[in-house]
Request: fold
Amino acid sequence: MSNGTTAPKGITALIYRDALGTDFSNRGISAHVMEVTVTGEGIDPVFEATDERPAVRLVKNENFNRETVVHAEPVTPAGEPAPWYMFGGTFIFSSDAQFRRAAGHYGAVPLHDRRE
Reply:
């Protein structure tokens, strides 16, 4: 994050993986760190994202039943094309009430950090 740009700020969240600790992210951010910095709408800019706690954003979409589904994905630096991310087997969670409000529910959110 020391490339001369201002690092995104948000709240911290832990990464949860399976009990074996297997990495299915194809060397995504969850393969290298234990925490992330959740940024975006409804999240106060409290902690600066770092290499040890990279920035992710919550993404909301509709499924075929028109229900809202939420996942997190890494924040792409400004000026770079956003890659296509998919679920790599890990989840993020924070007990901070801002996380619950931003996600729209209480519980873990899938982390889409796998690229092929």
User: Anything to note?
Assistant: The chain has one helix and seven strands.
